[in-house]
Amino acid sequence: MAKAVESPAFERQGLSDDQLRWMLRNMYMQRTLDNRGFQLNRQGKIPFATGSEGHEGIHAGAALAFARGKDLLVPYYRDMGLCVGIGMDPLDVLLSMFARGADISGGRQFPNHYSNKSLGMMSISSIIAAHCPHAVGAAYAYKLRKQTDRAVLCTFGDGSTSEGEWHESVNFAAVQKLPIVFLCENNEWAISTPRDRQMAIKDVVQKADGYGIPGVIVDGSDPIAVYRVLKDALELARSGGGPTLVEAKCYRFLAHTTDDDDRTYRTKEEIERYRHLDPVPRFERVLIEQGIITAVGIEESKKEVLGVVNDVTDRAEALPYPPAEELYTNVYEGTHEPWL
Amino acid sequence: MATTITMPQLGETVTEGTIAQWLKKVGDSVEKYEAFVEISTDKVNAEVPSPVTGIIREIIIKEGETVPVGAALAIIDEVGAAAGAPATAAPAPTATAGPAAPNGATPTHSSSRNGEALNAPDVLRRVSPAVRRLAREHRVELTSVRGTGTGGRITANDVLAAAREGPAANVAATIMNTPLTSAAKPSTPLPAGTSTYGAPVPGTTIKLSQARKIIAQRMLESKHTAPHAWTMVEIDVSDVWKWRSVEKDRFQREKGHPLTLLPFFVYAVVQSLKAFPLMNSRFTDEGIAVLKELNIGLAVALDSNLMVPVIRDADNYSIGGLAVAAGKIIERARAGKLTADDLGGGTFTVNNTGANGSLLSAPILNGGQAGIVTMEAVVKRPVVVDNDAIAIRSMMNVCLSLDHRVVDGAIASAFLVDLKKRLQAMGPGGTL
Amino acid sequence: MAVATSGTTTMNNVEAVRQTLYEALKADPRTLVMGEDVGARGNVFLITKGFIEEFGPERVIDTPLAEASIAGIAIGMAMEGLRPIAEIQFADFIYPAFNQIVGEAAKTRYRSNGDYTCPLVIRTPYGGGVHGALSHSVSIEALFYHVPGLKIVAPAFPADIKGLLNASIDDPDPVLFLEHKKTYRLVKGEVPNGHYTIPIGKADVKHPGDQLTVVSYGLYVHQALEAARQLEGDGLSVEVIDLRSIRPMDRTTILESVRKTRKLLIIHEDNKFGGIGAEISAMVAEDAFFDLDAPIRRLCGPDVPAMGYARTLEDEFMVPTSRMVDTMREMVTF
User: Are the Cβ atoms of C334 and B149 closer than 8 angstroms?
Assistant: First the structure.
């Protein structure tokens, strides 16, 4: 395989070819799973799907920087690629879409509300920014227990940074110098609210100054850059250096969910104007240019991913809904005697 | 004027304080608002300003002593207030005298905060669920229970106490529907198979059971209260009997109850009562109460106990309906399953004495009612019919005892004649 | 502080809270307390006085003035395996934390189907009669007892406080621990030495009787007991049940008592409309209708937002013992 001259812009940041290809595959997995969700929704098989097209670069880079078995991820509802990237089985994605009893929440949660204690993925609700104080609490526990090899990665969108509980969380983490990284996946939209109606500042990281913590902007469509920034921030956190606010810029190409018609608040032209930020074709081009993957390799990777997604789709669809009696379990520890 | 200084409440939940230091001694003068003592509590230490200008007359609590909020600490002799000065206003909150006790000033709570008053007439009149249930379970006749609750209300304990006096006591009240001295109330069903007599052996004295005592008492009361008068008619029931014979098998099959002469009779009685409302009334001190409801009691004899279950609003029933209602009620009576509701509220009574073969009876009025009527035995007899011919007809005597305070002979006879006409007009082809 | 393991010690309610917290922090390194002014100040009622000196600022956290995150951060700590005991300085300040308590803590176990749990205690002083005015006097239990996944306790005696606070700290699910501030120093009692727990969800018959059942909690339990003792002198027998737990609520004890006495009076400081007395009334009417010999009555707070600062307004809000006596007497003799 002829090796192209490394262009000065390309920095592999210590990542091997395998790791780089892993990131690309993760992006394919994310996009294919997302598409599968939309397909199933349009087939009438599932009521609801949320896409994360545009976030693939952030998720792949962050997943690689995350220390499996040590760190804790407290995600939000548009982090499917990141959750899969840190080890979640794609089957769980489909089980969640189909609301099967075998889903890790027993079919209780909305899709995209993943959790898995053994993987270090904290359970969340749909309430924006309500998970941020939890992430801070967990980081406090690491500090108290002097677990210096652990940090918390708390992710959220641009809209979250308006919520009071987000501010209270960052403030406390800063005051207490906790081992936590706040990652804002700024895709410029909170459903129909554009960034300039969400905040009076241009960049979310400007809020970091208000709390006395460092803020870093990174190009979210460049997974290697994201990886580098997060690796540094997580290391800083673990070593007692306190929190960082990372803002990964990207773009949300799809509507908020399948229930949202984004034609009511933005034009197709605008979406196309941002198409150059689409991380998948960009990373493909980079890897091909660097000779890390070939066109054939790309096709093979996509085919392999599709095979997996088809398999887990079939398996998940074949499983049953949770039985009705399970409505009453796990309200408290032990048996619950509701007044009926 | 002497002012007593008491221990202030120096915090929301503080209940006592300690004298840390007296800043004045006896005989010293003190200005209003000038600090004169230092008090410490487990929450806070504070200097307390004097509420008045004057001279310290007495120091009651020594330094280091702890007393509850509100206890007297010292006495200050107030010295002439400035001209035009207002009366001492309420002290500043931190020096409030007296504890914030929960039972302070009498509040003006509106009664609606308590729900409906327990002594509202509506509430007292009603029988509580517990009373109803206990009365049913213990077979207690509520009319015989004396209420010891508010306004004479029957309480659950009253019912239980009545039950403890023994079932016989309650059973005895079954005989008459209504005690004569109070408003119509239901009586208690007799358990099936209980006789109020022991074995009547000549030369022995049968001890009076409680039931028998009450029967005796009720009969006596009725006779002593209402002047009984008596009259009768004889009725040709041949046609109505034929009608009954034609229908009886089908009726039994379709309705599951026998079709006797009784429902035809009661139907006619009800119509006649409507025509002669005085027969459906009762004598009271305020006057003759002409009753609105037509609740016909049917005397049922069981083991020498007479029970009178009631068909309420009998005027709502057709002949067939009366047959079914009577059938059901008699079935329940025989099974010992009559409820208080079954025995309550009768306004007129029908007694089928003919079932025992009697031709004439002089019944005793039931529970303050104005009339009681009997159906005597139906007997085939030769009678004179149209054109002075003689025919064999089924004849039934009907006797009436009446309360002569309420009704006189003319009305009573007119009632009976009306009843006779109606019964004699019935025949096959009518509507059941 | 050496603690004998037998015998009892006399103490008031605030001391019972203090001691129990102290012993918990000493015994279990996973526990910590957090809230406004709990560290250097030792809490506005001096409950945590001396704690920060002994346990350090990492386990006695002076938080920023931010109730939502006091609850939310404690939730995260609990999900991660610590045993945080968070404090909301006055129950009147809990509203910003409502989202975290009801939307997050109560649902953690449920939404993760048992994968994550939330063993959290939130303590807060509530109740009036202390000239606290509109924002230092409210009762909040009615806002929260509706929520499955939460537990709520409101003990009124020092021995109950210790046992239930220990149980709350041990409990694997979130517990709202309500302390009536007026009883802090007003109520004294004997508290057994050593560690013990009282099960959450069990009421306590504080004064047996057979002519009327009175159900109450918090400050009014004490007044109800005083009223019952007064009536005892007149030969009237009133049973006073101290609910102790609001959720789960001890339905069995209430029903047993009502079946015995046939009459029920519920007394609580919180507003009558929508207060927990409404739930108890409905339950008893459903399950013991044929045992009732009188209408169920409730003596409660009026339907106004809060009690005013002026003494006359506060007194009008609060139910005096004399009124409890009158109502009890009326019901017993009904």
Answer: yes
